[in-house]
# Entry
Amino acid sequence: MKTPARGALAGIQVLDLSRVLAGPWCTQLLADLGADVVKVERPGSGDDTRHWGPPFLHDAAGRATDQASYYTACNRNKRSITVDMAHPAGQALLRRIAARVDVVVENFKVGGLARYGLDYESLRAANPRLVYCSITGFGQDGPYAGRAGYDLMVQAMCGLMSITGHPDGEPGGGPLRAGVAVVDVFTGLYASNAILAALHARERTGRGQYIDTALLDVGMAVLANQAASFLATGTAPMRAGNSHPSLAPYQDFATSDGHVLLAIGNDGQFARFCSAIGQDAWARDPRFASNSARVRHRAALLALMEPVLRGRTSAQWIELLHDKAVPCGPINTIAQAFDNPQVRSRGLRVDLPRDGGDGIGHIATVASPIRLSDTPVAYHTAPPALGQHTDEVLGEWGLDAQAIAALRAQGVV
# Structure
């Protein structure tokens, strides 16, 4: 059934022609906020990430299925239909739907949808209010526009990997990708923000617009303070492990039974840390009295701190410092993070029932971090089975059972 009409984006209809992560992350956010998102997938195979396993989902009896868990990360609250857009009848069907929706999201190569009549210029002729968001690796223009783009490639190209990992010469030194496809995720977030802005602008102008979103642009943007450092000095920042280039001490420390993280961001926190461990003189030492001084004398400070930190367990350090307003915490595994009492209290695991006819009784997902007081995020459907809503959606768009059966017989849906 359609999204219940209670979310912040209730009444907004989205045609999702994207796959993998950046586009689906964008449209899941819109769906969480109440938009009715219809995800179009290839008949028989669906989104690529349905097959990106292991790990795979298990059915109600605990048996592994052939459905990868990756897909469930970014397709909650959507309805799945299967349409072969390479078939003329499939193209006509999608144009029919696009003529009536508010938003189209796609992540095909530049110009890839023009041959199907599903590009922005073709669709806005029938729907001037359409907000059309394209997500590509490198954007719609420039010398790399025609290239395919992937998160790992962009993490390397934008410089993110050059500042991630331990310095050369240290154990484990060398560039590293982030443990999550962060450029894809950030791209989805930027794209959803752009769509919301375009929808708001449409309220004034009555017109939709085109959004050009590129992974490389986003990768450069999220370099944040590291990019600002380069632009200010002309010197490229390099890898510094878990330490911060502009703060000290702001990193992990070995304890007697593992590691703990200290994130001291100002002089007051440092003074309180020194008092808690009986080393008030450190806070008065000219080498350490200010953050800038601590950064300049980082090696000397660490030489003093590291033996002290090894003198207690991680839990003892956290217990000692948590009421002193000194940021200190564990370095958890994902399993430990989900078992954290704060995570459990905030309800950050959401189990959703699924009736997709495939024996998978429920799917666990991570809650949205968006907390709205009047129009809260709702979790109304689990990530769908492939084509689970084809008949339902096409029926809503005016096709009767006979017409749908004919399309299915042709392999269009």
